[in-house]
Amino acid sequence: MLASVSLMGFIAAALVVLVIPGPGVLYIVARSVSQGQRAGLVSVLGLSAGALVHVAAATLGLSAILLTSATAFSVVKTLGAAYLIYLGVRALLSRSDVGGMEAMAPRSLQRLFTDGVVVSVLNPKIAVFFLAFLPQFVDASVAPVPQQVLLLGLLYVGLALLTDGAYALLAGRLRHWLGSRVIQGRAPQQASGLVYIGLGVSTAFADRS
């Protein structure tokens, strides 16, 4: 469907974008450090599932609404920012005993997955990114544009699973290396809370450009 040169160019560009730490990576690292590798990997799956929604929207052309409609963009942006800040404030205000992480009532795997999906779906930057990034590698003379966008979007999500998964594993190892003295305190919880709030503020100030 796509020329091999164009496909390899897309893979190279996508890997550069994915390897550079961004909001998604910070979210995953926060989860892995606070609850371990499994929590981080489940969060990766949630974010990727949410990204599939954006892939479908881009394929159908719905993402263009976020660029052409200031109201639609503002609504999605506000919801996403509010949810991230809510997660952060709740993490900061949650009380735990000195005994350790077990007393912090960590999120269930199902809830971690759901959080990842919601955070990804309500992030307007992802929709704008797909709409701006994918068309650069689409050739209308080769195959129908929607098919090419779908293929590239799925490929991007697959690459994201690999790179984000690697970050989750590394952060989980970091959690182990830091030792129980740090991990069993409130530091990971407070750090993750600050990360969520920071992501929420970043989303709140995002613009369509």
- Residue-averaged pLDDT: 77
Decide which structural class fits the backbone: mainly alpha
Please, what is the oligomeric state? Answer: single chain
User: How many angstroms does the end-to-end distance come to?
Assistant: 30 Å
Largest sheet: none
Specify Rg, calculated over alpha carbons. Answer: 18 Å
Helix share bin: over 70%
Total helical segments: 10
Strand content bin? under 5%
What is the tally of beta strands? 0
Helices and strands, in order, run as HHHHHHHHHH
Number of domains: 1
Shape: globular
* Uncertain residue ranges: 97-105
Descriptive report:
This protein has ten helices and no strands. The chain is an all-alpha fold and 209 residues long. It has one domain.
Short recap of the structure:
This protein has 209 residues and is mainly α. Helix content is 77%, strand content 0%. The protein is built from ten helices and no strands.
Give me the secondary-structure topology.
Layout: H1 4-19, H2 23-35, H3 37-60, H4 64-68, H5 70-93, H6 109-121, H7 124-133, H8 145-178, H9 180-183, H10 187-204
Keywords summarizing the entry:
209 residues, mainly alpha, 77% helix, globular
